[in-house]
Amino acid sequence: xxxxxxxxxxxxxxxxxxxxxxxxxxxxxxxxxxxxxxxxxxxxxxxxxxxxxxxxxxxxxxxxxxxxxxxxxxxxxxxxxxxxxxxxxxxxxxxxxxxxxxxxxxxxxxxxxxxxxxxxxxxxxxxxxxxxxxxxxxxxxxxxxxxxxxxxxxxxxxxxxxxxxxxxxxxxxxxxxxxxxxxxxxxxxxxxxxxxxxxxxxxxx
Length: 205
Known about the structure:
The chain has 205 residues and is α+β, with helices and mostly antiparallel strands. The protein has helices at 2-25, 29-49; strands spanning 57-66, 69-77, 85-89, 98-106, 112-114, 130-131, 134-136, 144-150, 153-159, 164-168, 171-177, 185-190. The strands form three sheets. Strands 6-5-4-3-8-9 form a six-stranded antiparallel sheet, covered by helices on one side. The chain has a three-stranded antiparallel sheet with strand order 1-2-7, with no helix packed on it. A hairpin with a 5-residue loop joins strand 4 and strand 5.
């Protein structure tokens, strides 16, 4: 548990360091809001690109969708299967990551499951090797950030069950909400030529 707390602390420092410098240097509310937004964007990018151990990857497979509810199974590769993992989550409603589950195992083909075979493993002993169905009720553009952590072994994923995208002339633009009311958003694009100058047009709030 201590190692997992260290993992969360390191991410928390990454999220807050940019905001802290301006909070103490300026009392301007607008400047503080801009720095906090920047820290949220940096943390979101880091979750996708920097948290996973070298060689580790994770895939989400949708297994059910009924009305607003979506379910996924997770498959991990590149991490030891004999370890027990903690699942961390970082919802847009929370300022930092927190623990979702403990005692999680990796089964056949790397499926994330509750083995239920020992007291340390999550799950019911009468229902062994039970795959975990991660269930969400997403808003449009809402990301679900999950990570499996065991000491220095970790892998992270961002799932957006209801994506917001636009396509035009071979280019794609996606937007993800980073706060519940879309006060801060993360835009990403693909298909643009290298070194292309991109402009943004939208309403002035």
